[in-house]
Amino acid sequence: MLIRKGAGKRLISVSTLVSIHILKASTLGSLVMKPQKKLPIVLKIFVPFFLLISGVLMFLVCFEQIRIDKKLRLLSISSAPRSPCQGYQFSKSETGFVHYPQPSNYKREECACTPVRYFAIISMQRSGSGWFEALLNSHENISSNGEIFQIFERRSNISAIKRILDRVYNLDFYTSAAKNECTAAVGLKWMLNQGLVDNYDDIVEYFVRRGISAIFIFRRNLLRRIVSQIANDFDRNFKQLNGTHKSHVHTIQEAEVLARFKPTINATNLVSKLDWTNEYIAAALQKMKRVPHLVVYYEDVIKNSSVLLDVQHFLGVPQKVLFSKQIKIHRKPLRDQIENWDEVYHALNGTRYENFLYDD
């Protein structure tokens, strides 16, 4: 079939038209397919995301492998032979305060697994600390090594102090109080003015780190402490017992000799002196508050035997009846022991310290 087209009357066959339409259709098809060229952009987005996911998965696999390795190491440790001292059960509050020292000078033999607790008796001179320490040392499992830092060289600096403390708590500081193998509580007596006040922060840090507890012992009646202090200073100079100075005595006869001296107390500054002592004690308790501690008073130990039971419980030792051979020196009423009693009475009467006059 022929179709006439245009003024020139050119003839186009049907097959030609069909070919033209097919060509146009293929051209349109190719145009429709062109958006596929955007595929590389999608790949640019997908590939980093794929790499990120792959990295996370690899990290998780590695982390799981490390965790498994740690478990295996723990299993190998737990399967190793146990220490002969393992198996003792303590509460969580006690864990940091139970120790197994290994002294360098001897072996603890059958008591090697006896747990040891560390302590320090902290006090002021003439507060009953010597008598209190003697009571503790009468216990077969307690070793308190005395006033170690009375010697200046041992407290000249914090390094020297720590070296001495290390020896004490490793059971390497030998004194007559040492129980050697079967010690269950070891410590010393430490006066506040023997390097402790000057090094509070370092000593508190050392006590906390080593798991050391403190037992504070003070006197309630600070006036009696002043009497004892002045009398002791007097005897240090005059040595009333056959030319020998004794801070503590073991017979009634010796006590009577020392008690003959009646001190004269400066009544003018007595109240301010008592105030200073109270503040000194309060500051010590405040500075040492991070250290587990027990506060006892000389008068309470004398009047109430349960106080010593509390102390033994605090130290974690079997409770025993404790004793001391020391004899109290000043046993008379204060009016019979102070030379200028009337002045002292008028200085304290009506003040917050008035009860010191009548506590006999």
Structural topology:
Blueprint: E1 2-5, E2 10-13, H1 14-33, H2 39-78, H3 92-95, E3 117-123, H4 129-137, E4 142-144, H5 158-169, E5 185-191, H6 192-196, H7 200-210, E6 212-218, H8 222-238, H9 252-259, H10 270-287, E7 293-297, H11 298-303, H12 306-315, H13 341-348
Parallel strand pairs: 3-5, 3-6, 4-5, 6-7
Antiparallel strand pairs: 1-2
Number of helix segments? 13
User: Structural class of the helices, strands and pairings?
Assistant: alpha/beta
Low-confidence stretches: 1-18, 25-36, 72-83
Indicate the mean pLDDT: 84
Total strands: the figure is 7
Helix content: 40-55%
C-alpha termini separation: 148 Å
Describe, in plain words, how this protein is organized in 3D.
Keywords: Hydrolase, Membrane, Transmembrane, Transmembrane helix. By secondary structure, this protein is of the alpha/beta class. Helices cover 47% and strands 10% of the residues. The strands form 2 sheets. The protein has a 5-stranded parallel sheet, with helices on both faces. The chain has a two-stranded antiparallel ribbon with strand order 1-2. β1 and β2 (10-13) form a beta hairpin. The chain is elongated and about 110 Å long. The chain starts with a strand and ends in a 12-residue tail after the last helix.
